[in-house]
Amino acid sequence: MSRIGIIGAGAWGLALAAVAERAHHQVTIWARRPETAEEINASHTLAARLPSIRFGKAVVATNTPQDLASMEAVLAVVPAQHLRQVLGQFRDLRVPVIVCAKGIEADSGELMPEVLADCLPDCPGLVLSGPSFAADVARRQPTAVTLAGPHLRLAKDWAQALSLTNFRIYPSDDLRGVALGGAVKNVLAIACGIAAGKNLGDSARAALTTRAFAELTRFGKALGGRPETLTGLSGLGDLLLTCSSRQSRNFSFGLALGEGKSASEAKALAKGTVEGIATAKIVAELAKVQNIDMPIATAVHAVIDGGSNPEEEIARLLARPINPEFHRA
After folding, report:
1. What is the CATH number for 202?
2. In the predicted model, is pLDDT for residue 329 greater than 60?
3. Does position 199 have pLDDT exceeding 70, yes or no?
4. Whether 135 and 197 share a structural domain
5. What's the chain's average pLDDT?
6. What pLDDT is stored for residue 90 in this prediction?
7. Residues 110, 219 share a domain
8. Looking at residue 328, what is its pLDDT?
9. What would the mean pLDDT of 198-220 be, rounded to a whole number?
């Protein structure tokens, strides 16, 4: 049994706290709002965020960052664009920190492990990613994810410590590949949501998802991810999930865009943070600088940030030159 800290009391943070408790660890959840911590301690749940969760005595909540200083590992479960600000409150940590956010920091262009290294240089950084919805994990439905660390031994140790029969964790030492897959798939899921909102059909969805995966692999390999990682759970697996389900905030945001909502209207309808909104711009900018062909991601950026509309971007994608599907090296 270890002492595990969870930074963040959103639905995913609560689901992972439940995983850690079921794996027989003592869990301390840090919540930004004092009233959230008080509600968890009083009722052993937070029904407004994840009604299927009910914690046992091994889980407590706090609003004091110093209460996590004695943990043996900490999971940082906050939105990607807020990770740097939140980690700044935990300067006393000297233990492994598992980042559970999927994104690229918009201001710096850094991946989540790099943001962690900036904020907590004395903490070994890991990344947890893969096809997983908080509600499924809370209901104990079978789920498999990837945990990447700076070396495989550390990733294996914590994968074994947190795995359950119905929550399988596969260790990896490809930090960049796992982080990139989780970030880019959010942008591409918005595109698939737009296609669904425009009622383009199942054939279009299959083609779009396949071409989106081609973009994910190109981008990931160009920025240092391993090809095998990008075809795994944290790449292809996560892409397939978020490109096909309304449980995905990114897909649902795109769906609203496809149905005629403006970006601001679609964002207002979202239930929680839509990571792909901020990530779209930085992915498009990095692709341009690195000369990576990313037409779908660029189209999403144009709709969200460039004043374009889905009809224009769909027409532009369909008018692209007919080239071989695969380019030989």
Report:
1. 1.10.1040.10
2. no
3. yes
4. no
5. 96
6. 97
7. no
8. 64
9. 96
Q: How far are the Cα atoms of 81, 88, 174, 213, 274 from residue 73, in angstroms, in the given order?
A: 22, 17, 20, 33, 27
> Is the domain of 53 the same as that of 200?
no
By residue range, what is the domain housing residue 167? 3-173
- Number of domain units in the chain: 2
- The residue from 173, 203, 226 where one domain ends is 173
- The model's pLDDT over 148-194, given as tens digits with 9 standing for 90+, comes to 999 999 999 999 999 999 999 999 999 999 999 999 999 999 999 99
Q: Which amino acids are annotated catalytic?
A: 185
Over residues 68-92, the mean pLDDT reads: 97
Position 327 in a domain: no
Is the full-model pTM beyond 0.85?
yes
In a domain, 324, yes or no: no
